[in-house]
Design brief:
The complex is a heterodimer of chains A (199) and B (496). By secondary structure, chain A is mainly beta. Chain A is built from 1 helix and 16 strands. In chain B, strand 17 and strand 18 form a beta hairpin. The chains are: A mainly beta (199), B mainly beta (496). Chains A and B meet through strand 1, strand 2, strand 11 and strand 14 of A and strand 6, strand 21, strand 22 and strand 33 of B.
């Protein structure tokens, strides 16, 4: 108690500085396509054919059932997006069908699309898609499920700076309150970082 | 923090820049440091475009001669010491034709703020809450010590941290000592690292050192974690010094992960290509100066994570000496040369890949690059290929018949600069790579689909790797970590 009071007084006198410190590496060989923070502790690491729930506190990793040609997502519960491709002969045809299911297998949404794409981010409200093949024009698309709209999705991503992360990194997934980060480093390793007060 | 980077355009021509000098400046780290700026042209950081000479000032100029997306990082080090480090200092898109230097970023995780708002998350039951109170006491490991494992000799019955190690032949003994100063990791293991091949080759304008071998992906291990016992009035041994106590342990299989690079006289080099997989590894570096006779080491960062009472992180840097042979000229009896003026990475190899089976050529990830003839010959066909009507097209293409009867084909060109009947030599400009053509009625990404054929017909396709005299270890698979399927096919280096 006394320690806490002293610490509080010290913090009032000396302004605190937050710094992210590397905690540990996530022991997975699979590089996720997308990371969802399920809550403040658990993250969903999603890649095609392989999905894991990882507890950033206990480091417990559990694999969840995967389906062929689908990717999991999280949005008010687990969902998964399935896709089917077909070869087409004209631009009036659809080369991809997308289906969104909840965890019980109930179909929530489906849509036929012209481009040959795969879902990258799967939620109840929207789906982000990318080309299925590396030789196709690399674009990003968005399905707005509520409006039943499909459009090309362009953006310029600003790379944020995080105090304490000096290594080269590819991407960062932030917890809502920014207290914890999952960082994919230049060697494609996933690290858990935690915000701490600089001593 | 190196966060102040300035790009100062020095040349401005009215009809597009032929080259562009760009100045990079950074915050000094101290008068004892020297710096090298490295520029990459692939997001996977596998293809070095330029490495500056070492400078002791806080800025340097780099001349860009190609339109591309560049990633820049700076290596800083204190000469004659093993103190070094890297800073990633940004990425720039430089378009020489349209006089544009722009900020770009790689697209991987879509930014949350530009998507429709994510609905509030319904709290789910978390597996356990017992450890919640322990969170603040979680150990944070510092960088491990560097252990020299050149000999890999395990001494019998030695005492480590006051404990009898009782080392067994087939067990890797790891001792972790955690203190307020950090974490020391002692490895007494045989990781089975065997260097089977070292090649040191002169390719004319650069030198390569290729180190390949085998390693163990997992080992049988005994891990023990020690800490200093907390001060206790009743235990005099804790009054003035650290009394080491065993706080955690693990015995069993230890899965290992590796990254590797080369060190020259103690200075770490950023590998231009490396791969660990299936118990074999490959590490490559490119040099501009002869390194023969220098102290060359293969540096490995080995990591693993196992569950004792708590999670135990085992991270250690290991070194293995590399005996570099004398430099020899790279020679080859292959008849053709590379279809670009410099090496460009591959999106899809020849053969049966996860994307196409068969894929009849090699797809180079080239964006508006000069495509050159791979050998002497005569142009036998140019035009726009519509092999499958509206929806399946090879785009603008050129076919060259070579003097040995073989043919080379160049598809999806943005433009071509030869006619039927044109005689070409090695290096003659064929055209500019592009993205013309269609697949499944859709536009293609920028790339060159390149084929070598025994005859003129498409069915006579053969693997270009077997006919192109190139340093194929300098031709990486682009972005293979994110798209592992790109490694498939008849890839000359399956690890990367």
């Amino acid at each position: 108690m006394l320690r806490d009071i002293l610490l509080y007084i010290l913090l009032l006198i000396f302004p605190k500085e937050d710094i992210y410190t590397k905690q540990y590496a996530i022991n997975t060989l699979h590089i996720p396509k997308y990371i969802y923070w399920v809550d403040d502790i658990n993250v969903l690491l999603c890649s095609y054919g392989y999905t894991q729930i990882y507890n950033t506190r206990t480091r417990h990793m559990s694999e969840i059932d995967t389906c062929e040609k689908c990717i999991y997502g999280y949005d008010r519960g687990f969902v998964y997006c399935k896709y089917e491709h077909r070869l087409i002969e004209s631009m009036r045809e659809f080369s991809t069908s997308i289906f969104v299911y909840d965890i019980d297998g109930n179909l929530l949404y489906s849509k036929d699309l012209f481009p040959t794409v795969v879902p990258l981010v799967c939620t109840r409200d929207y789906i982000v898609l990318t080309p299925a093949y590396s030789f196709l024009e690399q674009k990003t698309y968005l399905i707005d499920i509520k409006r039943d709209m499909f459009r090309e999705y362009e953006y310029v991503r600003v790379k944020r700076e995080y105090n304490g992360i000096q290594e080269e990194y590819i991407t960062v997934s932030e917890r809502n309150d920014l207290e914890r980060l999952i960082v994919l480093d230049g060697y494609y390793r996933l690290w858990v970082y935690e915000k701490q007060i600089k001593k | 923090m190196l966060n102040n980077i300035f790009l100062i355009p020095l040349l401005a021509l009215n009809i597009g820049w032929e080259s562009k000098d760009v100045e990079f400046t950074w915050t000094p780290r101290g008068s004892e440091y020297e710096y090298i700026v490295e520029v990459y042209i692939d997001r996977g950081m596998t293809e070095i475009y330029f490495v500056s000479e070492p400078v002791d000032t806080y800025h340097t100029f780099i001349t860009f001669r190609d339109t591309d997306l560049y990633f820049v990082k700076i290596k800083y080090y204190i000469p004659s010491t093993d103190i070094y480090g890297y800073e990633y200092i940004g990425q720039k898109y430089i378009d020489l034709e349209h006089e544009y230097i722009g900020e770009t970023d790689d697209v991987w995780f879509p930014p949350q703020d530009e998507l429709p708002p994510i609905p509030p998350i319904i709290e789910e039951e978390v597996e356990e809450s017992v450890e919640e109170n322990n969170e603040e006491e979680k150990d944070i490991y510092s960088l491990p010590l560097t252990i020299d494992m050149r000999e890999e000799i395990v001494s019998r019955n030695e005492s480590v941290l006051g404990q009898s190690t009782d080392i067994k032949d087939d067990v890797c003994n790891i001792y972790i000592f955690k203190s307020s100063n950090g974490t020391d990791v002692s490895f007494y293991c045989n990781l089975g690292i065997k260097i089977s091949k070292v090649e040191y080759l002169d390719w004319g304008n650069y030198l390569t050192l290729d180190v390949s071998g085998t390693y163990l992906e997992s080992i049988n291990a005994s891990v023990k974690v020690y800490e200093c016992k907390k001060f206790s009035v009743t235990d005099p041994l804790t009054w003035f010094e650290c009394k080491k106590i065993l706080v955690d342990s693990y015995e069993g299989i230890l899965p290992l992960r590796y990254i590797g690079y080369i060190q020259v006289d103690g200075i770490s080099q950023s590998s231009t290509a490396w791969g660990f997989g299936g118990s074999s590894f490959f590490v490559r570096n490119i040099f501009t100066k002869d390194i023969y006779g220098k102290d060359i080491k293969l540096a490995l960062e080995v990591s693993s994570y196992v569950k004792g009472k708590e999670w135990i992180d085992v991270i250690s840097n290991l070194h293995k000496s590399v005996r570099v042979p004398k430099l020899v000229k790279a020679t080859s009896t292959k008849p053709f040369s590379f279809p670009f003026e410099k090496y460009i990475g591959v999106n899809q190899w020849y053969g049966c890949t996860v994307y196409q089976c068969p894929h009849k050529g090699v797809d180079f990830g080239a964006y508006l690059k000069r495509v050159i003839s791979i050998g002497e010959g005569i142009v036998v066909s140019v035009g726009y290929d519509k092999y499958g009507g509206e929806c399946y097209q090879g785009g603008k293409y050129v076919i060259v018949k070579h003097s040995n009867g073989m043919h080379s084909t160049y598809f999806h060109l943005d433009s071509y600069s030869v006619k039927v009947g044109s005689k070409v030599k090695v290096g003659t400009l064929i055209g500019i790579s592009g993205n013309t053509g269609k697949w499944n009625c859709q536009n293609l990404g920028y790339h060159l689909h390149f084929e070598t054929r025994k005859g003129r017909l498409s069915s006579t396709h053969v693997n270009p790797v077997k006919y192109i005299n190139a340093d194929w270890n300098s031709v990486p698979t682009l972005n293979y970590k994110v798209y592992p399927g790109r490694l498939t096919g008849e890839n000359p280096h399956p690890n990367f």
